[in-house]
Amino acid sequence: MLRLLLLLALAPVMIAGVAVAGPAAETPAAVVDPAVVNGEAFEPEHLLGDWGGLRTSLQDKGIDVNLGYVSETAGVVSGGERRGVDYAHSIDLKIDADLQQLLGLTGFSLHSAMVERAGRDASRDFLGDHLFEVQEIYGGAGDVAVHLAYFYGEESLANGAFDIAAGRMIVGDDFANSPLYCEFMSHADCPTLRDLGITNGFSTYPDSSWGGRVKVMPLGDVTFKAGLYQVRPLFGGGGRSGFNWGSSGSTGVILPVELDWSPKLGPDQLVGHYKVGLTYDSSTYADLALPLPAPSTIRGRTSWYVLADQMVKRTGPDGTDGIILLGGYSRSDPDTSVIDQLFFVGVLADGIIPGRPADSVGMQVMRFHVSDQLAAAQAYQLANDIPISSGILGVPSPGAVQGAETDIEVRYGFKIREGFHLMPDFQWVMHPNATTRVPDAAVVGLRVTVSL
Hints:
This protein is mainly beta.
């Protein structure tokens, strides 16, 4: 705790170090990032290269700075409530500091990120859909000039076999996620499974709360993780700015646990990731079953999930260079969870297009199911001419009994140059907002990614 408090106080020093860093030192030999080799991260790319030597100079001092821009434009070309095009973007500044290099604190590091987001949500504007977004950027912190995404300290011990982190953290950054999921534009599983993050408790990027997690790696390819995070619905993510760090309005805590197995199969070292996890939220939630004679509440919500991805053919040296199959299933308490089941399968392939080794193609199918308890309550309300509930505070009535929604997504990623990528995207949304009230919709999209 002392180290964490010290590092929180040193945030201005770290930022100042970015501004006053001296001339670049001699460029060190290239270091292979184990996370890239293991398929748990992507090789960093920068459109502006080394920033005239500044990036290397900062890294020599233990500071890594990344600035990126992502835009997602989505147009409904058929079906839905009406046709139209919406644009949204996110500008992210991430700073990681190695405090062993800066201050001699062995194994200790500091991580922070801030975002600026703006734009419109095509799913809400043109599909009347409040359960799913065709643009993943609208998963949180929309239309805000500056929002603190996370700020926490991390201690790595025993050569990385034991790792502990605490501070302003995001549940979905450590649990039920994969960098592969955000290779798609929809909010099906980017940045984490939609059903887990649709209501308060399981926070997703860029919304954080006070929390901590431990990670133990007893074997080279097995990892166990457990966490404890604050649940604060009225100030989720620290309020609009992300800097509201109080405790007022807290409703409980969420405790996630996850067991991961990451084998490398055969002579080509085909990387796979297999995960099983469980979360328990101690907060009190509305009972979605028929609210008679008066609405009731239930304390505690449980969810579990199983996720897998496996490379079946290698096309290059890095962890994600190849053909990868992926899929998952999650289940949440139907008494309190609007979406009680989610299932997805997909395939990603890098380096299979002749003459375009850096391009990638992908396809994903996602289907989620609305709680039977909520659907039964909606059916009763409809039959008795009572306003139909959406099950989510502040979300308008769906206008019909909800059931299931399916999204089929196909995408192609172009590498224009280092740090500059384009990704045309097509989605077929079946039963928007999980009702038959709105026609199935065809959505054409484009993601632009720039890493400076």
